[in-house]
Amino acid sequence: MEQLKLNEVKKYIEDNIGSFHEAREEGLEKLKLSTILFKKNPYLFKAKNILTSEMFVRKLVDAYLSSQEETMFGTFLERLAIFVCNKVYSGKKSPAEGLDLEFEKQNVIYVVAVKSGTNWGNSSQIAKMKENFRKAKQRLRTNSKKTPVEAINGCCYGRVSKIDKGEYKKIAGQRFWEFISDNANLYTDIIEPLGHRAKERNEAFDESYARMLNIFTAQFSNEFCVDGSINWNKLVKFNSGKEKVKVRI
Predict the structure, then answer these.
(1) 247 lies in a domain?
(2) What gap in Å lies between CA 78 and CA 112, rounded to an integer?
(3) In the predicted model, is pLDDT for residue 246 greater than 90?
(4) What is the pLDDT of residues 127-180, one digit of tens each?
(5) Which residues are within 8 A (CB) of 27 and not within 5 positions of it... i.e. 6 or more apart?
(6) CA-to-CA distance for 204 and 196, rounded, in angstroms?
(7) Cα–Cα distance, 163 to 171 (Å, whole number)
(8) Is there a domain that residue 162 lies in?
(9) What percent of the chain has pLDDT over 70?
(10) Among 24, 95, 122, 178, which one is most buried in terms of CB atoms within 10 A?
(11) Which phi and psi (to 5°) does residue 195 adopt?
């Protein structure tokens, strides 16, 4: 085990956080109104009594971008966790399907599925993770018969009430970062460097977002409004109808 050097963690974050911003900006540039109209639930927006094109488009876009950003930032946190564990325990990217990290600590081999938050999957996804754990354990026990192997679902933020899940353990937040780094304060130490150049990157994003919102609002009004009111029938037919509705968006 090596002592974690916080300056190395800080440098890694500052050198790599730009990839999150770049992916976010690229996703915004490629976004099309038709794409998000297909992916979001029109019935929900009607039930929320959305009355204007601007309000509809803003809520639609924000919901879509929020989901995308959660995934993008989760990927960044997962890579950070692997970097940290590599520095302390020589952890490495797992070759196992669906798993992220393997390392040895106190004479135990750990296989880890790293997730962003605690509420990350449905029952079938959890079942698949458990199957991946079983396969990884079998492989590692064949190669290292005398070394115990344990499976961990590590979550970068949040808190869990029950750690022992039978076939694996689930740890989150401070417990997870301490587990891979032997540093009880790492979960707060990483906050400050995450803000590296955040102001300027977000200002640029906000300008692009505003332009896109104006364009999408005009497109939506032209195609899905009649006499200033949203044409919900046409919108639902576009989203869910058996026959394709032709629109210019």
Answers:
(1) no
(2) 11
(3) no
(4) 999 999 999 999 998 877 788 999 999 999 999 999 999 999 999 999 999 999
(5) 65, 68, 72
(6) 15
(7) 6
(8) yes
(9) 100
(10) 24
(11) -85, 10
Instruction: Domain count for the chain, please give it.
Output: 1
Helices 198-224/53-89 angle, 10° precision: 140
Q: Is residue 246 in some structural domain?
A: no
Q: How far apart are CA 53 and CA 51, in angstroms?
A: 7
Owner of token pair 């996804």: 125
* pLDDT, tens digit (0-9, with 9 covering 90-100), for 52-108: 999 999 999 998 899 889 889 988 998 999 999 999 999 999 999 999 999 999 999
CA distance 94 to 82: 10
245 in any annotated domain? no
**Which amino acid, residue 192?**
E
What ranges in 145-245 are assigned the alpha helix state H? 174-181, 186-189, 191-194, 198-224, 232-240
